[in-house]
Design brief:
Elements (H helix, E strand, L loop, with lengths): L3 H10 L3 H16 L11 H30 L4 H15 L3 H26 L3
């Protein structure tokens, strides 16, 4: 139990969020069962809960950053050259809004499929 926090930090330094969260859950289970009432571990469970909350926020921020980077990378350079005449044509035909809706739906579908595939492959 005393090594849980340093081990969690090591796992986080390797971006092993799932491993860190698993270790936190296992440690909290030991605290609830085998070490229930031991005074020296009185605040450990709360500290581990706070670390788990921080990990969740890190994962959320990383997810948003990766998704944003994907969008930014595809708006630069060659792609812009290819899209420019299409955008101009769609704008003149007053179809920008409808194509943006289609694009949004496609991105949503791809993201949804990726999330679903990841969850299905995981060992939850």
């Amino acid at each position: 139990v005393k090594q849980a926090q340093p081990t969690v930090q090591m796992l986080l330094s390797n971006n092993d969020y799932i491993g860190a969260l698993d270790l936190i859950n296992e440690t909290q289970e030991v605290l609830r069962t085998e070490l229930n009432g031991v005074q020296s571990f009185k605040h450990t469970s709360m500290q581990l809960t706070e670390i788990a909350n921080v990990i969740e926020r890190i994962m959320e921020a990383d997810f948003v950053k990766i998704a944003s980077d994907f969008s930014v990378k595809h708006q630069e350079g060659e792609l812009e050259d290819k899209l420019s005449p299409l955008i101009t044509g769609l704008f003149h035909r007053k179809k920008i809004q409808s194509v943006l809706v289609l694009f949004e739906e496609q991105i949503y579908k791809e993201l949804h499929d990726t999330l679903q595939n990841t969850i299905e492959r995981s060992s939850f």
